[in-house]
Amino acid sequence: MSEAVSALNNASYAGFVEVTEMGLQGMITLRGDLSSAAIKKAVKTAVGVGVPEQRKMAMADGKGAGWMSPDELLLLVPYAQVEKTVTGLQKTLAKAHFMAVNVSDARVMFRLKGAGAREVLAKVAPVDLSSDAFGEGDLRRSRIAQVAAAFWMSGEDEFTLVAFRSVADYVFGVLKIGAQPGSEVGYL
Amino acid sequence: MLTLDCPYCGVAAEETELHGGGEAHLKRFGPASSDEDFEGYLFMRENPKGVNFERWRHVNGCGKWFHAARCTMTLEVFGTYSAQTTEPPKALLAKIKKKRPQWPGYGAEK
């Protein structure tokens, strides 16, 4: 089998915030009735966390589930486990109406780390990123400058962002410019 | 800047996250219908001055379609509601009527 490579191969940039491409990450799009017992159980089995609440990210031991829409979740698992997890979901949900797709290689993941992480995102996303409105575990599916992206607060002063792989370089460029030393706004 | 509350995400989404979908609650008639019915469905729009019902899609977000009631004159937003309905919710209509007593009501222009 050919060797899998992430979009930007762990490229990173150290501005007033550190922007890093996270490398290979297993991602699964799961669609179905999120309130149904079958989906709840399947998510718990697959990633070890419950179905997250509206606009929340639930993470535990490197796996997690993010709320993407009323009928869609983004499941995160280590890259090597993704095929196994999809097969598992298909087995546990055999009788339910659902869709589980491995989208790992269609996406790119970035991490923003540093005291100004909120600021860098706020420059390019139409989202209220003040600490009152957006806290740890909050997720938002929106846009980064010109392209669709989803991001969540994965820790103190740390955001994780997913976008389509085809626009990885664009997103990286936008975040780099946003994180340039000297461009701090100091508002958030 | 237009800001609409997405009934599915529960966020106040601003214009750049949204995509307009034209007039709401259009009725498409079945196979045995007349050419006039089909023409009406395809081309005839109310284009009112005042209260208007529209379709919007939260395209840079959950990706769901929803409905919004707005005023075409003042651009005031009266409210948004789910797409899984064939007419605006009663509570919203009452709210609009209160704000615009002269408004003839939903469907009165047709």
Automatic annotation (TrEMBL), chain A:
InterPro entries: SoxG, TrmE/GcvT-like. It holds the Pfam family SoxG. Coiled coil: none annotated. SUPFAM superfamilies: Folate-binding domain. This is Sarcosine oxidase subunit gamma.
From TrEMBL, chain B:
It comes from the Bacteria. Gene3D superfamilies: Folate-binding superfamily (3.30.2270.10). This is Sarcosine oxidase subunit delta. It comes from Pseudohalocynthiibacter aestuariivivens.
